[in-house]
Amino acid sequence: MILSGKTSLPPYDEMMQSVAEFYCAKEANGVPKRNTHDIGRDFVTYCDKYADYTGYPHLEEWRKKLCVTTILRSLDNLETYRDSWDDDHELLQEALQDPYFAQRTTP
């Protein structure tokens, strides 16, 4: 978007202030400097903030829920978290209605 000229970067001072605030917030939350690249629990907020910066829409709520559910399941059991979606049937049905979620072709 920047290279195409559709948007531009904020002023340098504003970007540096944002970086300083980011590191201060991480430090205040007890996040070691070596882990500042890890968006972890804040990934949904990060995605929304990035969308705001670039002018793109926020992720749909079902997509956010699906991501959070998947991450939590992977923390419980990394080997089998993809195998069972029994309690997320409604969420999956909503996801399958989205044409971009799973683009399938028929033979």
Automatic annotation (TrEMBL):
InterPro entries: FAD/NAD-bd_sf. This is Flavin-containing monooxygenase.
